[in-house]
Amino acid sequence: MDKIKVLDKEFILYLDESRIQNAIKDLANRLNQDLAEEDLVFVAVLNGSFMFAADLFRQIKLPAQISFVKLSSYSGTQSTGTMNRLIGLNEDLRGKTIVLLEDIIDTGNTLVELIQQLGDLHAKSVKIVSLLFKPEAYKKEIPIDYIGIEIPNEFIVGYGLDYNGFGRNLACIYKIV
After folding, report:
1. Rounded CA gap, 83 and 26, in Å?
2. pLDDT, tens digit, 9 for 90 and up, residues 99-124
3. 51: domain range?
4. Choosing from 16, 106, 120, 145, which is the catalytic residue?
């Protein structure tokens, strides 16, 4: 489908499934090579990263655990600028390398909150992995270690990303018209 409607908004195809999967394969290859000697815990940020986390984690060939956190900062098509911690970690992260999985990094507000919360858990280090990155929107100083695809500052849905809770189930990514 080249054009879709999600609730009251129209979207056009932006990234097809093969482009997404190729970016994930490249990320997995780099992580497998770079982190081979680390004690790893992947931490996926819900809800948006669930598809990305599953596809990436299946390609990780290293011994690793995975856990999930849930933070929310969006309402409709705009960031609210405030974080709500909904679900936390249960794993002991002392001395481990956290591989933080984000579906998308735009303003960086969610990332700052996550890094602050993870900082109290005495991990060895935190590596940030994002499938998508909006450099025009990013306003923070935290370096992103692994980026799958850089995109312009446009609202998108699909492959875990939503508009008011809808559109996450789409295999491709669409941008708003």
Report:
1. 31
2. 999 999 999 988 888 888 888 889 99
3. 3-30+38-176
4. 106
